[in-house]
Design brief:
CATH topology: Na+/H+ antiporter like fold
Mean pLDDT: 88
CATH architecture: Up-down Bundle
Largest sheet: none
Distance between the termini: 7 Å
Number of domains: 1
Oligomer: single chain
Length: about 300
């Protein structure tokens, strides 16, 4: 990886966030617009970006790398499910469930994919989409379990019927059978998908603008959470994968995705399943703000 190029790419993402921040403060973007942008990202632009990234030729090496990343992701998520209980067992249940959810599930879509794309391009999106498959399933199994102590068939259906997973499955089918979409369709998917990164960063900047400045100096539990989410977990995974001689994207994608802030849907799950919504919102917004500093540091360590 070219260090200067990476710094430039990360700074570009940061300045996109600033645009979103200014737009929110200037009331160009409203709270309702934030929700609308989230829906567009989740259900339109991100699936288009994922499908367009699977327009690659099948090879045994690529398939092997994809399977390895899928396995890494599954192991990491399951390990974090158990380890997170140790980190937060002194907190009340409503707070503990939120902190554990945010620790297990990172913002691998809105923020992870743009960061990976800025460094590795479409190949990075391809591998990241594979790595994110367990995330899209386990949020509805382990995620719901954290709040309710159980999962049911309704939540399992949501694990299967969500735009991110459906687009990834379609992409995998295209990859395995070397299916190519008509050029006009591919250009459409690429065009719509290309707005994912700037739209994501503008949305995140707008969300950060909603944090009262005094909140940045309170809530010790959020600083503790952010340290675990943004530093302890990715650094631990970096050293473990280095020990097993992982390299290239087999090393960097797991580390970078786990270096992302708390999943953007953490407050939504807290609201639906009885968690502490205030803590959930702080986890997402403050860890996102701090990640502007920590992500470049993690990238530096990977090199």
């Amino acid at each position: 990886m070219n260090t200067l190029k990476i710094v430039e790419q990360v700074l570009a993402l940061f300045f996109m966030m600033i645009i979103g921040y200014i737009a929110r403060k200037a009331k160009i973007i409203s709270g309702d617009m934030n929700r609308g942008l989230s829906e567009i990202l989740l259900k339109v632009t991100l699936p288009c970006l994922i499908i367009s990234s699977f327009n690659v030729s099948y090879s045994k090496d690529t398939a092997s790398n994809a399977f390895t990343l899928l396995l890494y992701s599954l192991i990491i998520h399951i390990c974090l499910f158990f380890v997170s209980n140790i980190f937060y067992n002194r907190y009340p249940k409503s707070v503990q469930s939120v902190l554990r959810y945010g620790t297990i599930f990172s913002n691998c879509g809105y923020m992870g994919i743009p960061v990976i794309e800025s460094i590795y391009g479409k190949t990075g999106i391809f591998y990241t989409s594979i790595f994110n498959i367990p995330f899209n399933i386990l949020i509805w199994i382990l995620g719901v379990y954290l709040f309710l102590g159980k999962s049911d068939l309704k939540t399992l259906r949501k694990a299967i019927i969500n735009p991110g997973l459906i687009s990834t499955i379609l992409g995998v089918i295209m990859f395995i059978f070397s299916l190519k979409l008509p050029n006009i369709l591919m250009k459409t998917f690429e065009g719509v998908g290309s707005i994912t990164t700037p739209l994501s960063m503008i949305l995140i900047g707008s969300m950060i603008a909603e944090i009262p400045l005094k909140e940045l100096f309170l809530s010790k539990s959020i600083y503790y959470f952010s340290f675990i989410r943004l530093i302890l977990i990715p650094v631990s995974i970096l050293y473990i994968l280095n020990f097993f001689k992982a390299d290239g994207m087999l090393l960097s994608i797991p580390v970078l995705i786990t270096a992302m802030p708390a999943a953007a849907n953490t407050p939504v799950f807290a609201e639906i399943y009885g968690g502490d919504t205030v803590i959930a919102s702080k986890c997402v917004l403050i860890s996102t703000l701090i990640s502007i500093i920590t992500i470049p540091l993690i990238i530096f360590l990977i090199q």
